[in-house]
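Q: How would the structure tokens look for this protein?
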Amino acid sequence: MNQRLIVEIGKTQRLRVVNRLKRTQGMSVKELAQALGMSYMGIKQHCIELHQLGYLDTWRRPKSETQVGRPELIYRLTQKAHHLFPVASNRVTLALLEEAQTLYGPTAASKLLFMLFQRKTEAFQQRVNAETLEERVRQFAALRDADGYMAEVESDEAGWQIIEHHSPLADLLAAYPALLPRLEQEMYGKVLRVPVKREQTTISGLYWCVFRIG
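A: Here is the predicted structure in token form.
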């Protein structure tokens, strides 16, 4: 977490706004005010200031067919806000993987990352040991949340889902876009003992990764 950025944001209320937006795909001032129990004008001022500082951007959400009026102004996080949350990889990590490829061949980085996820999977398997799928899903989501992935459990007619709103390994995901998602999906499947499908959305500062289970 970048302490300089924390100082720049300053107010606790602004951090509450940022943390709430992190778990969504964007919200209006009215929605934020209701969710946080704060005044409309207070939230609006915080959003304007965060937008000026570069932590938020905006887009217009069209009204539904039953609604009238102009599209609603929605705030969402920018990429700059990513560094306000836990980060487990950085330029040094990427540089080391590049050096490994230089020294030991083009597959060295992939092998190292595979071994890393193998160890992580084994550690999770020891801790996610419930009998039912629902219990395993909730156990694993809690562990991922504790690791900084901002994980939540949801369910619908299609089954269980774990939604992650942040990735501490964002730099690695960007550097290895074919490998890292596959390793995460395989880890999920082995830990939960069922097939898992991974779906990722990245827009502006939004990271939204859904693991559809079973």
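The chain has two domains: 3-84, 115-213.

The two ends are 34 Å apart (CA to CA).

Upvote if useful.
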